[in-house]
Amino acid sequence: MRNDAELLLAARTDASAFRELYERYAERVYGYHLRRTHDPHAAHDLTAETFAQAWLSRVRFRDEAGGSAGPWLFGIARHLLLVSVRRRRLEASACERLGVLEGIDREPAPEPDEGWLEGLDEALAHLPDAQQKAIRLRVVEDLGYDEAAEQLEATPQAVRARVSRGLSTLRKHLFDSMEMTR
């Protein structure tokens, strides 16, 4: 059995090696986030983002723990949790300054105009097939992660990761497109 460092080295060219690492740590990383957020949805999202960041930075992994990637992964998880907490504090502070209090009924959000989905199919076409399918099932068809996982023959955590990565890529693509039209 390969150790974590060997898996991350192999993951540079073999995605299945990263999947093996994911399967070793996903529950522990999820538990870490759940204990700190007390919110299963936030914990799943933060777990997906943790592994997305780990995937993106896998070539920078340095084995400083005798073959274990645990400290590295939990360092990423901790950083993402801190960023999330800071973001929530900033949002709460901004709402307070603007006089918007939590729990007060607000005006319903305006309905988007008919053209709000223009370009979505083209943007989705640029994503890897697995991310496209996950987003279509979860977002467009509004299936739960468990149902989408069954259809995709994957784990719910893998579907969350695909949706998270895909939506991040779409967001960047759409914002870049908006900047180009200005």
In brief:
With 182 residues, this protein is mainly α. 70% of the residues lie in helices and 0% in strands.
* Overall pLDDT metric: 81
Q: List the total number of helices.
A: 8
How is the biggest beta sheet arranged? none
**What percentage of amino acids are in beta strands?**
under 5%
How many strand elements?
0
Radius of gyration: 19 Å
Order of helices and strands: HHHHHHHH
Please outline the helices and strands.
Elements: H1 4-10, H2 15-37, H3 40-56, H4 70-98, H5 120-125, H6 129-140, H7 145-152, H8 156-181
Helix pairs in contact: 1-2, 2-3, 2-4, 3-4, 3-8, 6-7, 6-8, 7-8
Overview of this protein structure:
The protein is mostly helical and about 180 residues long. About 70% of the residues lie in helices and about 0% in strands. It contains 8 helices and no strands. The chain has helices spanning about 5-10, 15-35, 40-55, 70-100, 120-125, 130-140, 145-150, 155-180. α1 packs across α2, α3 packs across α4 and α7 (about 145-150) crosses α8 (about 155-180). The longest helix has 29 residues, at about 70-100. The chain starts with a helix and ends with a helix. The model is unreliable at about 110-115 (pLDDT under 50).
